[in-house]
Design goal:
OB fold (Dihydrolipoamide Acetyltransferase, E2P); 2 domains; two-stranded antiparallel ribbon; 2 helices; 9 strands; globular
Length: 129
């Protein structure tokens, strides 16, 4: 049991309230968004190739397997982009470089958008095999 603002709150109740808040935020964020807007690119397990950083903090890379379900903005190429100028992008880049150095295959899931670069899909996450 935990005392919070003069009230005793059980661990069960705290978890339930957190889940409810998370579900509420998710529902609010997705309301009015069409199913097609939730589409994202992906790639089957493959190896990282052609890592290309630039001076503005963006890192472009390709993967040995095909980039599928690409958004229209990324139709002309198979590369991916990470914004390493952000804490999340730095975390992604760290894992990317570790997988590359270890020769591990990765499975990539994209953002479904080209926010980092006009013709390149961003990365939401990847799984190191």
């Amino acid at each position: 049991m935990e005392k919070q603002d003069g009230l005793v709150v059980s661990a069960f109740k705290r978890r339930g309230l957190r889940r409810l808040a998370l579900i509420g935020m998710l529902a609010a964020g997705l309301s009015g968004v069409s199913a097609s807007a939730l589409a994202y690119g992906d790639a089957r397990p493959g190896f990282i190739v052609n890592i290309q950083p630039n001076a503005s903090g963006l890192v472009f890379f390709n993967q040995s397997s095909a980039h599928t379900n690409k958004p229209a903005c990324a139709a002309s190429n198979d590369r991916w982009a990470i914004n390493a100028a952000t804490p999340g992008g730095q975390a992604l880049l760290s894992v990317l470089l570790t997988a590359y150095a270890a020769g591990k295959a990765v499975t990539i899931t994209g953002t479904g958008a080209c926010a980092e670069w006009p013709d390149t899909e961003g990365v939401v996450y990847f799984l190191v095999q």
